[in-house]
């Protein structure tokens, strides 16, 4: 019985070790080795790709998520129009910048597939890819500078709650506070 238990433990440990030793298995079939098909699709549609997290997680909403939450935020027609302009501009610029990043990553992947890659060419290709990624990131982050100016402080606070970054002050009135005043001051009604 002990031998069987030991064998099962060893087999499960070996299986786990094998999974960790092959984390990129299947990636060799990608057309662009450094980008997954999902990455490429996100870049081609002008999606955020997580590049604006420093703004998003520090209280600076971006236009895409604000538009998704427009009803819950109580945006006015004028706010929706202004945010839509910011979003459309961002998306257009992000699609163009994403295409440059895809091309730069494809060039890097192709260079490693060939036999003649040298250090100088590698440096240029890496710098091109880094510049393309930086330009794309700037597109997304800069719109997180523009968007909050269109919103009220209460809408920004509500956005943080809706996105799960803050507790909802409207969920419960703390002891010792007048419920009507608390709700009014926290934009609950």
Instruction: Quote the beta fraction.
Output: under 5%
Main sheet record: none
Number of strands: 0
Principal-axes shape call: elongated
Q: Figure out the total of helices.
A: 9
Task: Flag low-confidence runs.
Answer: none
Structural class: mainly alpha
User: What is the residue-mean pLDDT, rounded to a whole number?
Assistant: 89
Q: Helix and strand string, N-terminal first?
A: HHHHHHHHH
Distance between the termini: 66 Å
Helix content estimate: 55-70%
**C-alpha Rg, in Å?**
24 Å
Verbal overview:
The chain has 189 residues and is mostly helical. The chain is built from 9 helices and no strands. It has helices spanning 2-21, 37-44, 53-56, 63-68, 70-73, 77-113, 119-146, 153-162, 179-185. It is elongated, with a radius of gyration of 24 Å.
Short descriptors:
189 residues, mainly alpha, 9 helices, elongated
